[in-house]
Amino acid sequence: MRRDEGRSSLAVACRGPSERGQSDRGQSERGQSSEIPVFFGGADEPVFGVLHLPACATVRGAVAICPPLGVEALSAHKGLRRLACRLAAGGIAALRFDYRGTGDSAGSAAGSGCVEAWTADICAALSLLRSLRAERVGVVGLRMGALLAARAAARAGVDAAALWDPCSSGRSFVREQVALRALSIGPSDSRSGDARPRTPAVSDPAAGAPQGADQASGSDRSGGTADGAVTADVEVLGAVLDGALVAELEAFELAGLESRPAPAVLALVRAERAPNRRLVAPLARWQAEVTEAAGQPEFVDALPDSSAVPEHTLELLDDWLQRQLGGGPPSELDLGHLPRAEARFAEHGALICERARHLGPLGLFAVESAPAEGARGPTMLFLNAGLIHHTGPSRLWVDLSRRLAAGGMRAVRIDLSGLGESPTRPGQRRELVYPLEALEDIAAAVKALEEDNPDGVVLSGLCAGAYHSIEGGIALGARGVVAINPFLNFDPEEVREGGELASDRNAVRPYDGWIKPLMRYRWLVDLGDRRVPAAVWWVLSQLGLYTSPAIPIERLAERDVRVLLVCGDLESRQFTRRGRWTMRRLERSGLVQLKVLPGSDHTLFGAEARAEATAVVCEFVLSHFGRASAPGCDDALERRRPALGQQGSPSPAAPPAPANRR
Questions:
Q1: pLDDT tens digits for 350-403?
Q2: Mean pLDDT confidence for 169-175
Q3: Which of 61, 192, 406, 624 sits a CA distance of 20 to 30 A from 526?
């Protein structure tokens, strides 16, 4: 693949955040440490993790890194990975992992008992680290992960516990997440069938409300608590918390933990906030070393694509943990009992096999979901959504992968180079949204996947991933493309710098010269999108004054690639207005379908929009490339059919798929 010198990144679409390439600041991904994916814990609901080991055969200590919950875990992912790399480079093994029902782990984060299950996951992580023969073991917990880490540390016994920006209570966490959803995509409403919006109310502790974490087991799955109160379901950004889980979280606070987590306790608290008595009191009781953590609002309060890693805090944590755990003589690593990077478990009524893989010469990280009895049809390949790692926004790729596996297909979610768990290419910066290297990555992954499944691939992504899917479909001739909320009109970096469009790009449509001056006036652009008739855009394209974003979709159809476009109101206008006539012709051909989800947010953090998109994607993929329906998707699809019809889109039923071309 050809690359133009100095053109290794692209601009985010016009509405996206500014792109910031970030390096690992000297932390080598290969050489100073090695990374080993593992599944551990119970066989029914295995926990997924990545073990960072020193490159030498010895270890001086070990740390379990406990992530936050919800969208904060997506924003914090790259920061926690860098912390693990730092620790391993200094001789301390580090284990990052996902709690049950989150990330790549099995299970569901619903109902009562989650706090106990997540505590048990941390204890299992500590047990795994001890099996490496590490002399001293510690924990690091971020936000709600700090509360869970403190609870598990007191139970399992550790040498050091670092509580990084701990929430004072689960109640405060839920309230903050409800507010974040309202600020990001608006408050939840009646559209969310299970989510009844509210700001969670908690009884006054003085009135006898449950306080200790061990009392949280008094809640039940219906949302009832030990005192008989009923807690409503709550929608936060990227998830719906059922009443039982909300009640359990509301009863969980740091002040309720009586035992000291460890002989050495470090608390990193926000400089921007006044001390909270529910936080100060237990820290004082535990004689914790307290210092300020700078940059937290830009780190975990920001959405994943705009999150900035607080390097100074990582350095502080690394130094403290090296002092507490790394003072003894090194021990020889024992990897004889290390769990494998694959697991079998039941989800969506079927037995699923998942395994971590490294694809292509670069070793791109991927997780494969497949039916235990063997897959049929092409492989579904999910690409990164912006800077979000391979689990997808709100765990969307995990859910879709497992639904498709339950439907008989193989699905793979991958990190492109420089993102998530994947290494970078020589000279490439990390955390770039639209890198030119993406097409090289897709080609390498497709080649590796087709070696054991010649039925080809279906490419899928959201936002930047949707753009890369379309590029890959044009260049490689994929069996199908599922593009969710793509933007195909934007100026790549090489164009913004005054150069020509890179020859490897086929899907992006740079802004035409007469439009660029208007981009300074967002209201004018929005008015043109909403009000300018489709016929005017057609005339402009015929005169060569405007390039339609429907042209890349037409190029896919010319290659006999079946295409599903899933768009919100804003994203659909490029096809329903600016490219209407081309899209109508393509839809009549039966190769292209456009599904509009009114009122959906761009990243599908809203629960109803995410459920609708899941139903549409499952129905499309399994009807054309697998069996006719997907587990759990039918009801959501039926609820959505009238709205889809109102948008003028064709019925989800479509002509039979063309014969296998491979």
A1: 999 999 999 999 999 999 999 999 899 999 999 999 999 999 999 999 999 999
A2: 94
A3: 192
Tokens encoding 442: 């897709």
Q: Which amino acid is at 201?
A: A
Element (H, E) at 88: helix 71-89
Judged against a pLDDT cut of 50, whether residue 650 lies above it is answered with no
- In terms of Cα–Cα distance, which of 605, 660, 614, 657 is closest to 195? 605
If you write DSSP's letter for every residue of 40-105 in order, what string do you get? ES-SSSPEEEEEEEESSSEESEEEEEE--STHHHHHHHHHHHHHHHHHHHTTEEEEEE--TTSTTS
What tokens does 394 get? 């709100």
Phi first, then psi: give them for residue 362, nearest 5 degrees: -80, -20
Residue 554 DSSP code: H
Alpha helices in 418-478 (DSSP H): 437-452, 464-476
- pLDDT tens, 449-481? 999 999 999 999 999 999 999 999 999 999 999
DSSP H/E element including 286: none
Q: What b-and-e string marks burial along 557-581, b requiring 16 or more CB atoms within 10 Å of the CB?
A: beeebbbbbbbbebbbbbbbbbbbe
CA angle 416–419–425, rounded 5-degree value: 65
Cα 285 versus chain centre, distance: 37
Query: Which residue is associated with the tokens 């913004």?
Result: 496
Length of the chain: 662
The model carries a pTM of: 0.84
Q: Which helix (H) or strand (E) holds 381?
A: strand 379-382
Burial of 383 (0-12, 13-18, 19+ CB in 10 A): buried
